[in-house]
Amino acid sequence: GQAGLSALAENAKHMGVPLYADAEMVFTSKGTSSGTVLDFTHSTVPLQPTASLWKTDPVFAVTPSAYPSLAETYADCARNLGAGVSLSQLGNLLFADYRTENTITRGEAKALAEQAFRVLKENGVSVAAESGNLYALPYLSLITHFPIHAGHLADYDREIPFAAMLLHGTLPYVCPPLNLQEDPETVLLNAVESGSGLSYSITANLYDGLFDTGFSYLYPTLYENLCAEMRETYQQVNRTLDGLADQEIVDHEALPSGLRVVTYEDGTKVLVNYAYSDIVYEGTTVPARDYVRND
């Protein structure tokens, strides 16, 4: 409840850990049968306590004209909570409103989304968002669900962490939650290769209450089961990427052997081995499906 959320915010502040409350702005589960785009006043939409995807219930896209007023409300809520705001999918989804009255084009929707981001930033609220379209980047303090691998929608010879090479050292970003991935081992290697921070989706209570609901995908999120794994993974990645957060990525090599060599501006190299056998690079052995730092 609200008391627990306030306690979480206070503990995060005491520990110096940034907290972002998820504020859904693109979709809502409240709608009418008259259309798929919902028009409403910001007073009816509170901060959402969880993720932005409903898997079983109907969802409605919020008309972009509501974005700025929603941002004003979320800014007030964030200040009262002492937290930042995560606008989640507003960072990577852009919808027009083609109803006959008050039509909003994609260009106008982009301007309204930018206005919403600007409202939060001008109110001193830190903002996070998923993926991060170009128009959102100037307003973000953190990118979540950062694209750390190719979308597999086209043929290509090899992948390079292009977005990471552009943004690393400029804007913090974290990979999609590792414990919700089909292949968490490969996603972890992708994250290290792109210099990404890690993320997990965790819950405090048992799965029983989520079964057969729109949030059943959260079944592998119990903190008690993940705590040791998260601690070990974070410690290993932190040792590998320590001191590199503000460094630009200046070179990337994809060797035929399956080894990726990522070079930072201070000369540090991070070696990521996607192969299922050990690889020796310039005298350094990189274990199979693992990564090492080479200063």
Key traits:
alpha/beta
Q: Terminal Cα separation, in Å?
A: 47 Å
Q: Which structural class should the secondary elements be placed in?
A: alpha/beta
Tell me the fraction of residues in β-strands, as a range: 15-25%
What's the helical proportion of residues?
Answer: 25-40%
Strand order in the largest sheet:
1-5-6-7
Number of strands: 13
Please report the number of helical segments.
6
Form type: globular
Radius of gyration: 21 Å
Question: Average pLDDT value?
Answer: 87
Main sheet: strands, sense, barrel: 4 strands, parallel
Low-confidence stretches: 32-55
Write the element-wise H/E pattern from the N-terminal end onward: HEEEEHEHEEHHHEEEEEE
Describe how the helices and strands are arranged.
Blueprint: H1 2-15, E1 20-22, E2 27-28, E3 37-38, E4 60-62, H2 67-81, E5 84-86, H3 106-122, E6 127-130, E7 142-144, H4 162-167, H5 184-193, H6 223-241, E8 249-254, E9 259-264, E10 269-273, E11 279-281, E12 284-286, E13 290-294
Parallel strand pairs: 1-5, 3-4, 5-6, 6-7
Antiparallel strand pairs: 2-4, 8-9, 9-10, 10-13, 11-12
Helix pairs in contact: 2-3
